[in-house]
Amino acid sequence: MGECPALDTAGRDIHGQAAALRAIGPAVKVELPGGVHVWSINSASVIKQCLMDPRVTKSARNHWPDFIEGRIPRDWELISWIAMDNMVTAYGQDLRRLRRLIGPAFLPKRVESIRPKVVEFTEMLLGGLAAAEPGGVVDLRAAFCYPLPLLVVAELIGMDQAAIDKTTSVMMMMVDTTVTPEQAQAVLAGWRGAMIDFIASKRENPGEDITSDLIAARDDETGSKLSEDELIDTIFAILGAGSETTINFFDNAITQLLTHRDQLDLVLSGKSSWEDVIEETLRVQAPLANLPLRYAAEDLEVEGGITIPKGDPILVNFAAYGRDPQLHPDNPEGFDITREDKSHLTFGRGAHYCLGAGIARSVAAIGLSTLFDRFPKLDLAVTVDELVPLTSFIMNGHQSLPVRLTEAASAAA
To answer: pTM higher than 0.85, yes or no?
Structure first.
């Protein structure tokens, strides 16, 4: 196979690296931080196979020999992504049990109940932007893309400002793939400690929120409930998945619209919908680029005559899926909200499909439509080439999003 290429830990060109790996093959051995070798899955067909095949799992404690036998140290740079004990990393009967316990917390009524709060938070943040001097430059990632999803997910899980402050810095370090082993260990300890304190406070003061629901949840089939570790790790996963991915979605969607004014005009004129914008953004700029990790529970045969041996770890390259020319032969790297096929796998597929997909789409539609209603002539304050990527091969976004504010339209208009 030749030399094993290393993923760029700084994530400087996620799409360029994905294309280069796809050119080598649908499944390619790559090196992660710490010298850990995994299979990067780069073609749409094999990505779909890995998400649906029961021989592929997400449980390191059941199916990754290097982890089971202690060859993956506790200070490995990506340890927080594999050491969790929740639905994300569960397998078989445990996964089915956890979905029965957690699924009711994400019924459609939850999407509808949170909508008024999403509108309230959006209007509050845009009101602050409207007070800025017209023509002034604002970091929209910091002022809008970041706080809106965080406010929404905090509302959903019943987290107050003090708890938010304790967890956000930890989440930012978790997605930074340039951290040192010492920092990685601190991240793992930090988010567990923050979650323990938060859950203890919810036990004392339950409310109408997901955390309280999960503390009280019981499995009708077995009578079991979430263990303490499962509860801690599940709430943190909801917080991270509900905020980080949506933050980067807003960042990417706004960037695409401001660099494709013809596409923005289609939406503002009513010729295309915000749903078109959301799905095309998720296709061409997947907010979650590479998700650590999955594992072959048995030898896995994939296209190209490749066999992934039992026990080998797998890295699904979501950024590669939506841009695969075999899936989207017509300008796969172009942003076109009018294209008929906007297939993507941002929310996963199969047993690990994201339970919060409906909430995420609702937040995205409300946030984008309200932003551009208030600031229809919003513009980038730098060229797109000057936007600096996140230092991550896991998340796909920018460190900041400088925009020039135009005079705001009336909130009542």
So the answer is: yes
